[in-house]
Amino acid sequence: MMRHRKSPCLSGYDYSQEGAYFVTVCVQGRQALLGEILDGEMRLNQAGHMVERWWHKLESKFAALETDFYVVMPNHFHGIALLAENTAFALPACRQGAHMGAPLQKIMQWFKTMTTNEYIHGVKEHGWPQFQGSLWQRSFYDHVIRDEASLNRIREYISTNPLRWDLDRENPRSRGSDEFDRWLTTCKTRPIKETRRGGPMCPPSDPRRQLGDHGEDLAAAALKQQGYKILERNYVTPLGEIDLIARQGKVLVVVEVKTRKSTRFGSPQEAVSVTKQGRLRRLADYYLKAKRLTGSPVRFDVVAVTMTENVPQVEIIPNAF
Questions:
Q1: What single string gives the DSSP state of each residue in 18-66?
Q2: Residues 6 or more apart from 299 whose CB is under 8 A from it?
Q3: Model pLDDT for residues 30-60, shown as the tens digit of each residue
Q4: How far apart are CA 112 and CA 96, in angstroms?
Q5: Model confidence pLDDT, tens digit, residues 87-108
Q6: Distance, CA of 25 to CA of 136 (rounded, Å)
Q7: Helix spans in the chain (H)
Q8: Complete domains list, the chain, with CATH
């Protein structure tokens, strides 16, 4: 028997406004099409890696969106979506093909559409298991994150979701209930009213990208001051992009730069989740093979940039993971 949740959206809530959202999409019929849990660890299959890849592509498609912690489970997906200043969503797109002005519903619909299209291709070309009707359930589920404590609790749940699979409500063989679900139901179901600010007729093209580029400039300058030699910036691979690649002595350093306007939703480095760390390791492997550097010592650093009142604070975290 299927378990039903409350209506997925809050009546009258403006899902285009600035904030953080915990979102969930479920496979139709709770089929385990994306991988399996072994020894408390999620083992993604090809379809699971495909879903993960489209989640990462959201940031380049939607200008005011930043993706945070996420997890691909056997039959569902959890993620945290951070929406930037609400003016970027309230106005029409400024360039053809841009998705500025897209509310949360449109973002998630695009994610579901693109993953569905590629899954259908996988069925035809690679023999992936077929699904009946639709790949995903009709709607998605969301929770408006209201404070840092809630954000951290949801991040912890996402990070440990594979370990809690036996209690997961989406697991057809679950053996109990998860206290996280009980906590989630106690949260407020009505949004706090906020005063909407006006804005220019057309904001600058891709403001989130401009912030990220500025953060990378600051990070590169700080690294150079510490003796790093910058080898690559925004190195693109078929698996994704590496912000900075540097060398310090004989060590090759893969650098992830995270830039935030404030610490309202946590420090920048907290967004480098376990899943993002795994992705960076795969990107590093690709780079080493492409440059014929296999066997070279590699380190992963994080540079956290916070633009508090437009005064940048740059923290270099060597050997971050």
A1: SEEEEEEEEBGGG---SEEEETTEEEE-HHHHHHHHHHHHHHHHSTTEE
A2: 248, 251, 252, 253, 254, 318, 319
A3: 999 999 999 889 999 999 999 999 999 998 8
A4: 22
A5: 333 333 333 343 444 588 899 9
A6: 7
A7: 46-61, 87-90, 104-126, 148-160, 179-186, 207-225, 274-290
A8: 19-186 (3.30.70.1290), 207-317 (3.40.1350.10)
